[in-house]
Amino acid sequence: MSYPRVKRLSEEIKKIASTLIRNELKDPRIAPMTSIIEVDVTRDLRYATIYISVLGNNKQKSSTIEGLEKAKGFMRREIGKKIKVRYTPELIFKLDESIERGVYMYDVITKVNESDSTPSDEEKSDE
Q1: Which domain does 119 fall in, by range?
Q2: At 47, which CATH number?
Q3: pTM across the whole model
Q4: Do 58 and 102 share a domain, yes or no?
């Protein structure tokens, strides 16, 4: 069962948090190619899990998570100022690597299709 209020709050937190990451946070550890994929808010509206994607190597990903963890209090306060709810959700940051897995799977499928479409040496000798 879907809860419309939870969905609205998730989308609003996503908008505010992405604006904060892009414009307000000046931490050099946060990679410039950081994007928020999804925000999940629990039904009791106490916790918000923010899934982020970072374009870069593993060192940039870990430093971005570290920088966001340090800025968690600031972000929570700013979200609380913009959203009028009784309790401002506690922010939890998780790295989402689904985009990279999708790109990797696409590359694998493309390579397999290319190797299937090129005739092998046996097929050439039969012709």
Answers
A1: 98-127
A2: 3.30.300.20
A3: 0.78
A4: no
State the greatest distance between any 2 C-alpha atoms of the chain, in Å, as a whole number: 76
Shared domain check, 111 and 90: no
The H or E element spanning position 65 is: helix 58-70
- Do 92 and 112 sit in the same domain of this protein? no
Tell whether 23 and 56 lie within a shared domain: yes
- Residue count of the chain, please give it: 127
3-state secondary structure 88-123: CCEEEEEECCHHHHHHHHHHHHHHHHHHHHCCCHHH
Q: pLDDT (tens digit, 9 = 90+) per residue, 24-72?
A: 998 899 998 899 999 999 999 999 999 999 988 889 999 999 999 999 9
Q: Are residues 86 and 120 in the same domain?
A: no
Which of 60, 39, 59 has the alpha carbon at shortest distance from 49? 39
Instruction: Give the pLDDT band (50/70/90) at residue 127.
Output: low
